[in-house]
């Protein structure tokens, strides 16, 4: 590869060589990540800006380095934005899978106390001679269970890729 100025545009072959991925993978990523928008000249020839290359580096890191699925990387882009993934590509931002898992768990699981009060009918009293078992969990135990469930869901996504939600 010839030496170019850092702000120079790159061809698809230069970017593919720099990221160590085949050109068809870059074209495929364009179909899956709408944020990847290289300039196209006559004949459909692609030219990548430096920010495009950094975004591609971030996506490559998420997919190949961190083991995310396409959907997982799309979710990180959606939740955290292009600048976050560009930062990953530049090595300025580290990917903390545990933090991503915690964020996802907190967003996707409603607080039981909030939903119980609003939607649960009053419990019937125990019949004579019947022992009613009541499980009271502390907020810390509930948070821990949420994290375990999220970890299990993430493990399932790794074992069974591209499954519907």
Q: For the report, how would you describe the main beta sheet?
A: 3 strands, antiparallel
Q: In DSSP terms, counting alpha (H) and pi (I) runs of 4 or more, how many helices?
A: 8
Mean pLDDT: 78
Distance between the termini: 42 Å
SSE arrangement, N to C? EHHEEHHHHHH
User: Which structural class fits the helix and strand makeup?
Assistant: mainly alpha
Tally of extended strands?
3
| Share of helical residues | 55-70%
Strand percent estimate? under 5%
Shape: elongated
Uncertain runs with pLDDT below 50, 5 residues or more?
A: 105-120
Radius of gyration: 23 Å
Give an overview of the whole structure.
With 165 residues, the chain is mainly alpha-helical. Helix content is 58%, strand content 4%. The protein contains eight helices and three strands. It has helices spanning 12-19, 23-32, 50-65, 70-80, 82-90, 97-108, 112-119, 139-159, and strands at 10-11, 39-40, 46-48. A three-stranded antiparallel β-sheet has the order 1-3-2. Helix 3 crosses helix 5 and helix 6 (97-108) crosses helix 8 (139-159). The chain is elongated and about 85 Å long. Residues 105-120 have low confidence and may be disordered.
